[in-house]
Every structure is written in structure tokens, then in C-alpha cells.
Design a protein that fits this description.
The complex is a heterodimer of chains A (407) and B (210). Chain A is mainly α and 407 residues long. Chain A is built from 14 helices and 5 strands. Chain A has 3 domains: 79 residues, Arc Repressor Mutant, subunit A; 168 residues; 82 residues, no CATH class. In chain A, 58% of the residues lie in helices and 5% in strands. Chain A has a 3-stranded antiparallel β-sheet. A two-stranded antiparallel ribbon of chain A has the order 1-2. By secondary structure, chain B is mainly α. The termini of chain B are far apart. Classes of the chains: A mainly alpha (407), B mainly alpha (210).
């Protein structure tokens, strides 16, 4: 029998090892990843060995709790945040087994008795281990202030849950009546060692630690709630003042027994300022100003003051677009030169070209171009403004034409 | 000048003395009997020594508020109008740091870190713009750095912050923030504004729109 158990156990573990990748990927993703779905045969075996299971038809394949716990423990994974609070049933099991053991012993069935004793030991150690793990998990949460969850509200909920669980464990541990256990173990040294020495000592330690964890949790919850209240107050005020831009609470200083929170004095010492409106002080003040020497001007670094490389080859070419009237006037002057500097009237040239503007604009263009020529250019050309003879004595003269020639 | 006179002068000048804003002065006032002695001294000038409910710190109040109503009204208007920009600053820092809690006395702030986050987040820089548009912090600077510097300088002037390491632009929050929280809580309680509920309601409304 033992040989068979041993053989199938080894085979089971080997099988786990052989499909370690599948199992671990399932552990990380929650369900068997699609990539493994073709391995039907392997999956079937794992289901039979209760490594994988399918909660409902629509669900994917999950790891069974026993395997997940094994991995969580082995990987020291903090994902398993919840405490194992089922202390009561563990105690009931141990008590039942003690009953079996005593009966077997009293009837002289020693083989069964020793098997029961081994079982009791197994359960006692499992309970101790589970208690130790609970305490460890609890302190991890406390030490990182429930850092695994993001929001403050989530921390508060986690804290409240942890408090409930601690209370349940403590209640469960309270069910241990060591007098009862001592009586149950009677004079049996092995039972006494297991139940009274090992278990009692461990449970005492656990109760002490859980009680102090409970206190810490309670204080931490108070702290979380205080932060939440403070933050809510500030955020609430922000929302409120955005909605009521001109909100003014009643003037508390006018009320009797005003709160000291708003009783703040006007600073006694005003800042010293110069009175520049007193004329008599002018001379003294200007002397003082003159005597001020600026030792160094502190230049703050600003990006537009920093040296920059200038790439002169990439400077864009500037294109000056000549206006059509300028081009036309230039053509006119070239025409004068072409005609050996003969006197030519601007209007007569105007008749020859196809200029879109009216006469007045043309004359103005010629006049302003010649007026803006430099000395060298203007010495080359002569011009005469042909003004009209004013018929009425308004004093206004109009340029009717411009004659241009070369000396 | 004796230490005592120096502290009295600071108080009369409207300074807020706590373990972060003026550590030596604060320690001096905590010596047995010293606060009482200071109180007696101030009372001769019709002033008194006050302390916020939450946290530590000392500031000077009028012994007879009724006789100083004009000054108190002036101060009151100033306190009320500065609540909103100060609260905006508190939420800006909280959001920038991604903290659950708002600034507490003794908290250390690195301006460059704050600047970096604000520069990268449009919502936060808009919030900063809103803060510096208020007369309390008025800044014409176009950069986040310039605006923050102005805000921090004003907060130092008002004793909300102390510059604990000027070279690295590290600042420490003083206990005056506790006074601010006390003031808001007082208004909330007396005027029954139910500010805490506003946050939940806003979250619920936001959920509806999501």
C-alpha cells in the first residue's frame, strides 16, 4: 500500500514538473492560456489529477486551490492577501481525532492508534503553520500600509476586512480550552507534547501577536479615515468655491465669542516705504539714489540668452517683389535713355504702355520714384513738373504732366 | 535683543511660530512656563497667544476682539479670499505627487519635481495658471518655473513654507496648514456646508457621465 502511494505520488510530482510551464502560465494568467489548448491529452491528465478544474462550462480552466496555494507559498507571492480564518473547524477536527485515538488505544488497537496520532500531529502542525502564515501576512499588510491596493478607500476596505478576519481568528482561538486539551491528553506523553506544549505555546504567541496587530490595524484605520476626512474637506471646499465664486461666510469678527481661528492681528510693523510726495526730501533722496552702486547684475539663465549656432548657408533667400508701378517707371526712364535723353512727357509714355492704373496714379508713381532716387541717379535726369494754371485763387496747383530728359 | 523680546516681536509682526517655521523660537516657547510668560507679556498690550486646534504652533491674537473689529474684519476678508487659492495649491501638490493625503506640517517638497510633473500634465499646468491668476499669488511669468517660484515665495512670506535647502529648492511645510484646515473645518461646521459629501456627489455625477 505504502509503496503504491509512494509510486503514484512520485509520478504525480513528476507530472507537475513536466508541465511546470503550463501550470505557472496558468497561475500567472488565471486560466490556461490559449497557446496550450491544443495539448488536450496533457490537460485531461491534469484535470484528472485535480491540478486543473473548470468551474463552469463557459469558464476557462483554472488551477485548483491546493496547487495555487503551493505556488503562492513557494513564490512568496503577496497576491494571496486574505487570511485563513477557519480555525474553528481545525480545532473540531483535532478534537474528533483525539476521540478516535483514545478509543483505539483503550481497545488495544495500537496500529490504528498510532495512525490517529500521526494524523493529530499533522493537523496540529498544519494549524500552527497556518496561524504563523496568517500573522506574517497581516504584518506584511500593516508594514506596507496595504500598499497593494491603490486608493485610500480600498485601503480602508482592506483594513476593515483584515480587522474582521483577525477578530474571527481570535474568536476561533478562544475556543481552545487548554484545560480540556490537558484532560484529553491525560497521561499520554506524546499527546501532551503535541497539544499542550507545541500547540498551546504557539497559540499563546499567535494571540499576543494578533492582538497587537489588531491594535495597529485599528490605529491605522483611524489614520486612513482622518486622511480621508481631511482630503474630502479640502476637495469639497474646492468644489464648493468653484460653484460659489463670491461665497462669503458671515463676518465672524462681528459675532460675540469669535473663534480664535480667525483672530489674527494686523502685523504691527508696517513695511518701511519712502514718501516721494514730499518735495523737501527730493535732494536727499536723489543723493541716496546716486550713491547706490550696483555691484553686479545677476543675470538669470534664460534659453534665449544662450549661444546658438547659426547656419549661414541655410538662410532663406529673401525675394523682393517689385511692384508693377516701380517696374513701369524704371522702363520709362530706360526709354528716356534709349531716346538719347530727349525730353519725354510721362503722359505720352503712358499712352504707349499698357498700364492698368489711372493717369493720376501713374504720375504719382513717376514723381515719387524720381523723388526717392539717390543723388547720383537724380543728377542724371532732369524733370519738370507741368502744373496747371489755377483759374480760381485757391492756391492749389495740380501736376498735369512730368517731363523727363537727360542733360 | 533677548530671545524673549525677539519672539514677542515676531508674534506682534503677525508671524506664525511652529517647529518648522521658527524651530528655535518654538522650542523656547515650549519650555515650561514660557508660553504663559509670553501670554502675560502680550496681554499687557491687549494681545494674546493662540494655537491651532490641529497640530502645534503659536500666533498672536487680539485679547479683546470687540475693540479691534475694524482690523479683524480686514484680516477676515483677507483670510477668506485666500482660502480658495491656498486650497487649489493643496490639491495641485496632492495630484502632482499622487498622494492620498494633502500637505501635512513637516512634509518636504521639491520644487523641481513638482515643476517636472506640472510641465508634463496639461490639467495641472492649467490649475497652476488658475492659482497665479489670483491676487494672492499674482504672477506674470510665462513659465511653470516662474509661476511656481512666485507661489513658493508668497507661501514663505505667509509662513506656510520654509526654504529648508535653497540650493536644491527644497521646502518644508509648516503647521500653518493645520490652521488653514481648522479654518475650513470651522466654516464647514458652522455654516453646515457638508463639504465632505460634495466630493462623493461629484464622483457619482462623474460616474453618470462616464
Amino acid at each position: 500500500m505504502t509503496d503504491e502511494v509512494r509510486k503514484s505520488g512520485v509520478q504525480f510530482l513528476k507530472n507537475l514538473g513536466r508541465h511546470a510551464e503550463l501550470i505557472l502560465d496558468t497561475y500567472l494568467e488565471g486560466v490556461v492560456p490559449i497557446a496550450y489548448e491544443d495539448n488536450r491529452k496533457i490537460i485531461e491528465t491534469l484535470i484528472q489529477q485535480q491540478v486543473l478544474w473548470r468551474p463552469t462550462e463557459e469558464e476557462g480552466l483554472h488551477l485548483t486551490q491546493a496547487v495555487r496555494n503551493l505556488l503562492e507559498q513557494g513564490l512568496k507571492d503577496e497576491r494571496n492577501r486574505q487570511l485563513d480564518i477557519n480555525v474553528g473547524s481545525a480545532i473540531a477536527t483535532i478534537k474528533t481525532l483525539i476521540g478516535h485515538y483514545k478509543e483505539a488505544q483503550s481497545t488495544g488497537n495500537y496500529r490504528d492508534a498510532s495512525a490517529y496520532l500521526r494524523d493529530i500531529g499533522e493537523h496540529v502542525f498544519t494549524l500552527i503553520e497556518s496561524l504563523r502564515r496568517n500573522v506574517h501576512k497581516l504584518w506584511t499588510h500593516i508594514n506596507n500600509e496595504f500598499g497593494r491596493v491603490g486608493s485610500l478607500s480600498a485601503k480602508i476596505r482592506e483594513n476593515e476586512l483584515a480587522q474582521e478576519q483577525v477578530a474571527t481568528i481570535l474568536l476561533g482561538l478562544g475556543m481552545f480550552d487548554f484545560k480540556d486539551l490537558a484532560e484529553l491528553s491525560g497521561a499520554n506523553p506524546q499527546l501532551r507534547k503535541l497539544l499542550v506544549v507545541n500547540l498551546q505555546w504557539e497559540i499563546d504567541k499567535c494571540v499576543t501577536e494578533l492582538s497587537s496587530a489588531q491594535k495597529r490595524l485599528f490605529r491605522m484605520l483611524g489614520h486612513f479615515k482622518e486622511i480621508r476626512a481631511r482630503t474630502a474637506l479640502v476637495h469639497g471646499f474646492k468644489i464648493f468655491s468653484e460653484a460659489h465664486l463670491d461665497y462669503q461666510p458671515p463676518c465672524y469678527p462681528e459675532q460675540t465669542n469669535m473663534s480664535s481661528l480667525f483672530n489674527m492681528i494686523v502685523p504691527f510693523e508696517a513695511k518701511a516705504l519712502l514718501n516721494t510726495t514730499i518735495d523737501d526730501h527730493d535732494a536727499v533722496l536723489s543723493q541716496i539714489v546716486q550713491s547706490i552702486k550696483v555691484s553686479a547684475v545677476e543675470q538669470t539663465e534664460s534659453p534665449d540668452r544662450q549661444a546658438r549656432a547659426v547656419d549661414i548657408f541655410e538662410m532663406p533667400e529673401i525675394e523682393i517683389e517689385e511692384k508693377p508701378e516701380t517696374v513701369a517707371v524704371e522702363n520709362f526712364l530706360s526709354h528716356v535713355i534709349d531716346k538719347d535723353g530727349q525730353k519725354i512727357s510721362a503722359l505720352s509714355y503712358y499712352q504707349m504702355i499698357d498700364f492698368v492704373m489711372d493717369e493720376e496714379f501713374w504720375l504719382f508713381a513717376v514723381f515719387s520714384y524720381m523723388d526717392s532716387m539717390n543723388d547720383e541717379e537724380s543728377s542724371l535726369f532732369n524733370k519738370k513738373l507741368l502744373n496747371n494754371t489755377p483759374t480760381e485763387f485757391t492756391g492749389n496747383q495740380f501736376i498735369e504732366d512730368i517731363e523727363v530728359w537727360i542733360n | 535683543m533677548s530671545h524673549f523680546a525677539d519672539i514677542a516681536k515676531k508674534l506682534i509682526n503677525g508671524k506664525f511660530i511652529c517647529e518648522y517655521s521658527y524651530p528655535d523660537e518654538h522650542a523656547f516657547l515650549l519650555k515650561p512656563g514660557m508660553a504663559d510668560e509670553m501670554m502675560a507679556y502680550l496681554e499687557k498690550m491687549e494681545f494674546t497667544l493662540s494655537t491651532p486646534q490641529e497640530g502645534n504652533g503659536f500666533y498672536c491674537s487680539y485679547l479683546l476682539p470687540k475693540n479691534n473689529q475694524a482690523d479683524l474684519k480686514k484680516q477676515f476678508i483677507e483670510i477668506i479670499s485666500s482660502l480658495s487659492p491656498l486650497v487649489n495649491f493643496l490639491t495641485l501638490v496632492q495630484q502632482s505627487c499622487g498622494d492620498d493625503d494633502i500637505i501635512r506640517p513637516g512634509d518636504v517638497m521639491r520644487m523641481t519635481e513638482l515643476q517636472g510633473v506640472i510641465e508634463d500634465t496639461t490639467a495641472l499646468s492649467t490649475q497652476l495658471d488658475k492659482i497665479v491668476s489670483h491676487s494672492l499669488f499674482r504672477s506674470t511669468s510665462s513659465t511653470v518655473e516662474g509661476k511656481l517660484k512666485q507661489v513658493f515665495n508668497r507661501l514663505i512670506e505667509m509662513d506656510y513654507l520654509v526654504s529648508s535647502n535653497p540650493a536644491h529648492q527644497i521646502y518644508t511645510a509648516t503647521s500653518k496648514w493645520s490652521l488653514l484646515i481648522d479654518q475650513i473645518r470651522f466654516i464647514n461646521d458652522t455654516e453646515q456646508l457638508s463639504l465632505e459629501k460634495l466630493v462623493d456627489e461629484t464622483i457619482k455625477q462623474d460616474d453618470l457621465y462616464d
